[in-house]
Amino acid sequence: MGELLKVQNITKYFPAKTGFFESSGAPIHALNDISFAIAQGETLGLVGESGCGKSTLAKVIARLILPTSGKIFFEGDDITSVNGARLKKIRRNIQFVFQDPHASLNPHMTIGSTVSEPFVIHGLSGAKKALLEAENILDLVGISKEAVKRYPHEFSTGQRQRIAIARALALTPKLIIADEPIASLDVSIQAQILNLLKELKEKFNLTYLFISHDLRIIEYISDRVIVMYLGKIMEIASSRDLYKHPIHPYTEALLSAIPVINPQSKKKRIILKGEIPATTKLPSGCVFHTRCIYVKQRCIDEIPKLTKHDNRFFACHFPL
Amino acid sequence: MFWKRFKKNKLAVIGGILVFGLFAVAIFAPLLAPYDPDIINMEQVLQSPGAAHILGTDDLGRDVLSRMIYGTRISLSIGFIAIAIATIIGVILGSISGYYGRLIDSLIMRLVDIMLSVPTFFLLLTVLAIVGPSIWIVMFVIGLTGWMSIARLVRAEFLTLKEREFVQAARSIGASDARIIFRHILPNALTPVYVSFILGVAGAILMESGLSFLGFGVQPPTPSWGNILTAGREYMEVAWWLILFPGIAIFITCLSYYILGEGIRQALDPKLKI
Amino acid sequence: MNNCLLEVKNLHTSFFTDAGEVKAVRGISFSLEQGKTLGLVGESGCGKTVTALSIMQLLPNQAKITPGGSILYKGKELLRLSQEELRKIRGREISMVFQEPMTALNPVFTIGEQIREAIELHGNLNKKEATNEVIKLLKDVGIPEPNKRIKDYPHQLSGGMRQRVLIAMALASFPSLLIADEPTTALDVTVQAQILELIGALQGLKKIAIILITHDLGVVAERVDFVAVMYAGVIVEYASTQNLFNEPLHPYTKALLGSIPKLEDKDAKLNTLKGSVPVLTELPAGCIFYERCKEKSARCKDITPELVEVKEGHWAACCLYEKG
Fold it and tell me: How far apart are CA B130 and CA B141, in angstroms?
């Protein structure tokens, strides 16, 4: 499996809000020195709690926002700061599915024009043919052809997410970044969309970057998983290894926090102390040390590096 | 949905019907007017309202009703064209300002501040005093000095809409800035513009009447509500109908625009329960 | 049932909207004993929140409880109380915790003032005693340095902390029943674990009954004694948590459980439900779940199944288990 996408030392700061009378506070450290690669054909899961920077990372990779520093390579080409026609070409290959299909579909456009728009923008076909193409894609995601004349508000949330997926598929991209694509759906609908994504992946040989805060879903869909906390990568491992044997204490705590469906299993639960620190004031040393149950002096003093061991990466001085 | 909510507001429906009626009057003026508005008949000077002339005649014996019916055309078209100019400028500048932000936003917004500090009515008087009275100048000056509030409205809508996910989705499929502005954001930003447009028309009609009254607006013999009123001023004590009926027409027109605009605003505002 | 704290019988609640009458809750009955926990589970629009609001009688104006039902609290009929009597029950006897901790707190008052208000409304303590009570409550819900935190405004706290404040407010008057409407949905997993732990500990401490409303079956499995599964305004299955998860009876419950990815079994395709929840303005005849059901038969189209006791303490509303 070749490398499809590689990110190198990506860092993103958002400047502090400056008021008229005061320039308050430090900048937000959204991403801190992130490096990883996505192999052709795999599903890479990205998991973490709110504020860990996973959505920012997704948008940086999709070239919706620019990183402060670092590089992004797609099929070996540096795409960090390409513009114009080259950026448009990248857009064909990297597509995005957003969390909330109520927000990601234009309420004033029919489903037909939404799904056929990619064809029109990229000059792939005229408006009439594009509409036929749109009908075909909608059919693939399980939406009937009559939908093209209707508006987003006439559809349920699950159907809307199918439409958003159809739009992302339209240009036959190589990489689809899905940012919490099922977080706003009901349980039974979540399963429908997960199955659909799995089917489409096989059919079109897609690569996914799948972002979620739900470990159960990440485990189910991903081949490999990245665990993020406060803008940093804590651990990267194949999903089997990660769930069987977490190396980073944060991963362990996350896994133990998942409610178990079986009421008999009284599994040991690690309750983390305190709250996630603010991204404007990162803790010294290991960012997780304020909540880690195994914390030692070294964790407070020294920043752990992401190290590789047996095909796994982790950033911890005292791996489990 | 919009219609259902709008129909609940009886007053707005009446306003809508009146505005619609005014347009019908303007369009079918030649059919509705009992007399030619410009025909002078010195035998029928200052007739009080009666069977022959429902609203009486003026100092030159012209039928007041016919003149008012034709005046509808002038008043409505000045209001409409002036505000259309203001809206187009406002929407374009507001869109650019809100979408691009930063320096260009600051520049446009300072321009708005400067323009707002110019008293429109006196600017109009000055311009008209220099170049001479003309309907077209009136329309353009009202248009060029009336776009600021619309620009601010559109800018505010753009500021929130450009962060919405469907805009990012459009960007991620490779849409150009122009496409994002005009196809994706603008249609979602127009709601407050509709309301502002309708309220603006009422304001422009009032301003035109005021100017005509002062003699700077529409020039006789072309009838407009403002100059019928002016002509009637001299005969106020003997011919009350010359000022009463044009006054009522201006009043009712502006009122119906306002209640229509307010009704549309309420119907479009999902937070209001009606 | 001697120990019965709350008994809801045949509750119907409808919303009267432009689109017609929306029958959000259609004849549900359940009871809750002192100190026990009931989970109300279902997808969005199943009526679980409306049920809670009906008990509290905090429904919006366009919603009405259809006469004929009954909500007995400690033997008192809540539906026949005056506004004044209801006000005394709300907060003092029955408290509620909402999903969104930011909107449920007033941004212009400190959290200390807000909790003290809840105490003063229902007790007769002086200001100093009340403040001490606030600090004690904040300590109970696990807020560090409570004597400093009482001067904080809601926006200075994180989501998890706000939810703790809301729980403290709900507990201020020692209620016998706490209704928690999706209390952890807006929170992160690790914070959710903290809050669920807290609710469990408080229940053990104060012996209150809890109605926990959630869409997350995992939360239910961990925290509650009994579960009522709701679908399109009716309870389709009711059982003890053990029984429900070991042996779900209703096809809807089975499908819900099947649609959650299991941590052990990765390659299995998820069991999905076809279609989506029916529109409540145009309900089909017969079984409400018919369209999406995998075990349907011809009968289901005509018969509206009643909730029947299939095994001891395990109820289901499905033709598969109809008697006779």
Answer: 13
Neighbouring C-alpha atoms within 13 Å toward the C-beta of A273: 9
Strands C37-41 and C209-214: parallel
In sign, the C-alpha dihedral spanning B42, B43, B46, B49 is negative
Residue A133 sits at the chain B interface (C-beta within 8 Å): no
* Cβ atoms of residues C39 and C212 within 8 Å: yes
Q: Of A207, A186, A18, A235, which Cα lies nearest the Cα of A95?
A: A207
Partner B contacted by A105 (CB < 8 A): yes
User: What does the pLDDT look like over A32-57, one tens digit per residue?
Assistant: 999 999 999 999 999 988 878 898 99
Comparing CA positions, the residue from C251, C211, C234, C277 lying closest to residue C12 is: C234
pLDDT tens per residue across span A147-206: 889 999 888 888 999 999 999 999 889 999 999 998 888 888 888 899 899 999 999 999
pLDDT average, residue stretch B156-164: 90
Q: If we measure between CA atoms, which residue out of A199, A259, A250, A206 comes closest to residue A229?
A: A250
Say if the Cβ atoms of A186 and C215 lie within 8 Å.
Answer: yes
Residue A306: both structure tokens together: 């992401």
Contact A118/B at CB under 8 A: yes
Asked if residues B236 and B228 have their Cβ atoms less than 8 Å apart, the reply is no
- All domains in chain B, ordered by first residue: 2-35+57-268 (1.10.3720.10)
Q: How confident is the model at residue B66 (pLDDT cuts 50, 70, 90)?
A: confident
Decide: C240 and C323 in contact? Cβ < 8 Å: no
Domains in chain A, please, with CATH?
Answer: 3-103+170-222 (3.40.50.300)
User: Can you give the pLDDT at residue C146?
Assistant: 85
Q: DSSP labels for A268-280?
A: ------S-PPPTT
How far apart CA C75 and CA C86 sit, in angstroms, is 14
pTM for this predicted structure: 0.81
* Contact (CB, 8 A) for C82 and C45: no
Average pLDDT for chain A: 88
Q: What distance in Å separates the CA atoms of residue A187 and residue C260, rounded to the nearest whole number? A: 7
Q: Which of A316, A320, A295, A300 is nearest to A235 (CA)?
A: A316
Between CA C89 and CA C179 the distance in angstroms is 13
Q: Closest partner residue to A171 among B171, B173, B176, by Cβ?
A: B173
Pairing of strands C94-97, C177-181: parallel
Q: Give residue-wise pLDDT tens across range B126-138.
A: 888 888 877 888 8
CA distance C191 to A273: 9
Q: Verify whether the Cβ–Cβ distance B165 to A103 is below 8 Å.
A: yes
Inter-CA distances, A179 with A44, A56, B76, B163, Å: 12, 10, 52, 16
**Long-range pairs for B225-231: beta carbons < 8 A, 24 or more residues apart:** B225/B68, B225/B71, B225/B72, B225/B74, B225/B75, B225/B249, B225/B250, B226/B75, B226/B250, B228/B58, B228/B64, B228/B67, B228/B68, B228/B71, B231/B58, B231/B59
ipTM: 0.80
Query: What does the pLDDT read at residue A112?
Result: 92
Q: Hey, which residues 217-276 in chain A have their CB within 8 Å of chain B?
A: none
Give Cα A5 distance to the centre of its chain: 14
Positive or negative: CA dihedral C313, C46, A164, C219: negative
B106 interfacial to chain A (CB closer than 8 Å)? no
> Cβ distance C165 to C101 under 8 Å?
yes
> Residue A29's pLDDT band (boundaries 50, 70, 90)?
confident
> B94 — phi, psi (to 5°)?
-60, -40
| pLDDT per position as a tens digit, A268-298 | 778 887 777 877 788 889 999 998 989 999 9
pLDDT of residue C1: 46
B256 neighbors B23 (Cβ within 8 angstroms): no
Asked if A191 contacts A215 with a C-beta cutoff of 8 angstroms, the reply is no
